Amino acid sequence: MRLAxxxxxxxxxxxxxxxxxxxxxxxxxxLKLLDSALxxxxxxxxxxxxxxxxxxxxxxxxxxxxxxxxxxIVVPLALATKSDQxxxxxxxxxxxxxxxxxxxxxxxxxxxxxxxxxxxRTKPTHRGIWDKFAxxxxxxxxxxxxxxxxxxxxxxxxxxxxxxxxxxxxxxxxEAAIDYAVEEGAEKIYGIGVxxxxxxLMQVAAYRDELVAVSAISSPNIFPNKPPKDSxxxxxxxxxxxxxxxxxxxxDVPKLYIxxxxxxxxxxxxxxxxxxxxxxxxxxxxxxDLHGTEILDDEEFGPDAVxxxxxxxxxxxxxxxxxxxxxAPGADPDHECFPPKDEDDERDED
Length: 350
Fold this sequence. Notes:
The protein is built from eleven helices and eleven strands. The protein has helices at residues 26-34, 46-54, 59-79, 131-139, 163-166, 171-183, 196-205, 266-276, 293-297, 302-314, 343-349, and strands at residues 88-92, 98-104, 109-114, 143-147, 188-194, 211-217, 222-223, 242-243, 255-260, 281-286, 322-326. Strand 1 (88-92) and strand 2 (98-104) form a beta hairpin.
């Protein structure tokens, strides 16, 4: 296991709003970001626009390009706020990987949100799957930090263009997010992860004592179960996996697990977390096949699930010992569910 903290203040932030970063001027930064594939801004680049502006055969197009370039610089400067509220920015993990994050709300109590792997119903996945829940958290007075894990959303890949290749390292994004929250003065930090986001959170929460409470929704114990057969990483130390189950007993803060009883193996794996975890811990099981944020956003189950999380955040130690709410009486959380047997099923599981 690679359970070594990255150290305080390891996160590095690059705003997309106003201000400067080190010795880089505001104008230079905006020009770089306009030309950055990381944030997927539309071509042509500023350099190309200037070339068009200087082209004697295209005076009209050159004039339009010059105006567009001026607006690209002036408008962000005019609209930016001191806190760059809701603007995407870039954080850097301990291994040098950069990932796109977003900060919503105000206050000293932070909630960090880690998203899931693509599913049949939620594809692609990125920080945007938290939109509805993040809005509710902000309304409740929390400051919300969420991000795109490497090889998801606006964050580039490290090993290949397949997200599965980068999954084993996403715990580093959690570390950088915690470092950033601490650096920004967070007094309390809560972590909530869905599916692989929860698995990686269980791994990190075992040694990052800045977290005051954590929750995993529809999270497998180990992810991925196996590498793709044609993976270039298949021979790299057995393709190291995220492993939340082996570390959950070391998490000293309150824990909340939520799962759907008909959601493949997640109910069984959540129950394994529940049994292995120290007190206080609660496990809530719903009669549904929904996965991750799908549960929170659902019209039928969402209101109850969201309230469960809000109550947990408001009073984590309101949980006494080991509590279970089984709202799927026909389900047996102890019934073993074996991992999927092929790559397609593996990807669908998370």
